């Protein structure tokens, strides 16, 4: 897989493994990590994603995103996160763009996502649009 070298020591690449604590640190920075969750699931989460794109500054994980798909038809992008002190510099855009490029390269052209509140404009600039005829839903156990 192509490694995209960015400015300074930053690089963007598709990976199949990463230190679980690096992902936990990103999730904590974003306010996504809940007490009691186990980082034991992270290796499978990364390996079983259709594509997992990581933004590294040197050896440090500072951003990530992943695509879920069967590799043939539809795909969903999720977990787009950039560490707080790296935000506002276009890194999230590069992560999403790389995921879209990877999906389109294998012929997947239906790519969806559920954005967090306040992210609509960000995703619209990247070519995503609302699907007013659909309602995102989540199963509640």
TrEMBL record:
GO MF entries: N-acetyltransferase activity
Alphabetic keyword roster: Acyltransferase, Transferase
Pfam families documented for this protein: Acetyltransf_1
Any one annotated GO CC term: cytoplasm
InterPro entries reported in the protein's UniProt record: Acyl_CoA_acyltransferase, GNAT_dom, NSI-like
Domain N-acetyltransferase: start-end pairs: 10-141
PANTHER family per the UniProt record, alphabetical: ACYL-COA N-ACYLTRANSFERASE, GCN5-RELATED N-ACETYLTRANSFERASE 2, CHLOROPLASTIC
UniProt-recorded name of the protein: GNAT family N-acetyltransferase
The organism of origin for this protein: Pyramidobacter porci
């Amino acid at each position: 897989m192509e490694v995209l070298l960015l400015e300074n020591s930053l690089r963007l690449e598709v990976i199949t493994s990463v230190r679980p604590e690096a992902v936990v640190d990103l999730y904590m920075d974003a306010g996504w990590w809940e007490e009691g969750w186990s980082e034991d699931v992270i290796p499978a989460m990364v390996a079983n994603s259709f594509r997992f794109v990581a933004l590294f500054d040197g050896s440090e994980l500072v951003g990530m995103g992943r695509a879920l798909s069967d590799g043939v038809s539809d795909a969903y992008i999720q977990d787009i996160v950039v560490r707080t002190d790296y935000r506002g510099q276009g890194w999230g855009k590069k992560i999403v763009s790389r995921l879209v490029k990877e999906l389109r390269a294998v012929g997947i052209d239906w790519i969806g996502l559920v954005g967090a509140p306040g992210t609509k404009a960000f995703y619209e600039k990247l070519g995503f649009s609302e699907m007013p005829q659909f309602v995102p839903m989540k199963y509640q156990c």
